């Protein structure tokens, strides 16, 4: 840094500092060293402008130096500065059609509040720029929707932005807004005719499914009112939104979906599990209670293992769920496809609390599976000495 002298911010005849020069030429090592120099980070000096009112970020974007752009953004460079030509760094990156730089700048724009001036600049410099895509095929509308910038979303829609544009993962602006729970944006997009049933390629999930997965009650209520398909299944397991909400433990969402007519006994295509089975397997006590009170089949079996909600809960050690199901009348001697009972699974997996609960409720300690094994022998086979001792004292 010695060659910079004692006044590294003194500009040349074009008003450019060493920071501008490093950005123009794509000198990453020099940029790193300059940004370590405290003076460039003080008092907004990272955004110092030259005679064209361009910052280092402008020049890095114009030159396609995405690594420099990332460095500057990470250090707090502003994207809200316009050159004498009325161009922002985003405009310059769009003109160069540089997807990587656009991605960095789009994210920064959204994180910095979705400045309306940037959008206006896009509009003023050609209507095609409003749907310019970054390397992930995301647009300004996509990022604005993800961050919940209602005013920007409204402006972009009014200016003709494509509301159905899909990114590299087939996520639409509506999908992004739904996932993050931005009701205002969801309402705006839905009222403008956004496809409520659009599915992404990887998971095959609709906006409602994403909302259910992420526990977005307000969004779900809005989508249901707009007539979305409440039973739309995803591609991964063939689950319904209700099953996914149950598995995730989103009680409010489960209640809302059930009250709006969701099939309480819907089975996924992969495992044949009902919402109650998913909830029991994952220990979602509140959801289990809700579904049982709504009349869910407490003895429903999956197709993979022939297990009931009680078997799953016992197997995974969910004491609260086991207690609840038993109190609601679940069969404690029910057997899966291998003739293994809830007590057998609890012993096999070392679930001491569940074992005590089941034994107190009268579970058969000598019940054998299809290979003649008892809960005691299953525990011994797994090396669960404390369980062997517990069961031995009960015999």
From TrEMBL:
PANTHER family: ANKYRIN REPEAT AND PROTEIN KINASE DOMAIN-CONTAINING PROTEIN, ANKYRIN REPEAT-CONTAINING PROTEIN-RELATED. SMART domains: ANK. It comes from Trichoderma gamsii. This is Uncharacterized protein. It holds the Pfam family Ank. ANK repeats lie at residues 14-35, 52-84, 136-168, 169-201, 203-235, 237-269, 271-303, 305-337, 338-370. Signal peptide: none annotated. Keywords: ANK repeat, Repeat.
